[in-house]
Amino acid sequence: ETGVTQTPRHLVMGMTNKKSLKCEQHLGHNAMYWYKQSAKKPLELMFVYSLEERVENNSVPSRFSPECPNSSHLFLHLHTLQPEDSALYLCASSRETQYFGPGTRLLVL
Amino acid sequence: KNQVEQSPQSLIILEGKNCTLQCNYTVSPFSNLRWYKQDTGRGPVSLTIMTFSENTKSNGRYTATLDADTKQSSLHITASQLSDSASYICVVISGNTPLVFGKGTRLSVIA
Q1: What pLDDT, on the 0 to 100 scale, is given for residue B97?
Q2: Measured between beta carbons, which residues in chain B are less than 8 angstroms from residue A98?
Q3: Which residues of chain A are under the pLDDT cut of 70?
């Protein structure tokens, strides 16, 4: 265990659903990240929060909406997703080295 | 363009054998390089961190090397075990830019 937890671990949703992914860390880290991992592709950075403020948004579609209410929690709100959004969504936190959560395996039908 | 290329894409070895995974990068300026191990269905876990001045660093049966001149790194696994079966991801950090990830090498250790 890395100290970063993610829920749910698995999620199946339709294209009209709204769901949220949750990430939590109590490591005292000051930065949190959302990554997308698709098969046979490098990890893609989606969002970075440093000290609870968003500092990076790599042109992610607006159907993905992050929220960082405090330094220990990070959410990824999902709505009207597409089948190509099916992937493993990884959360990470860091002070220097990034520690990854176990990921949420998302399937969009 | 900042890129990290890993080879081979996949590898199958017998338990107890050694193997070496390669990572070539074009990321500049270079800050440090990290190797992560990712078990199936889990998030990546850091194995080693190599800075510019470090040539070799060991973590148990894992030994990482770095040649900053040729921009190459390798991860050598000694006396492989079944539990070494995983994806090994090379990541290069450059100043304040986002981490640059390789696609990973999928290692399967068989009995």
Answers
A1: 67
A2: 46, 99
A3: none
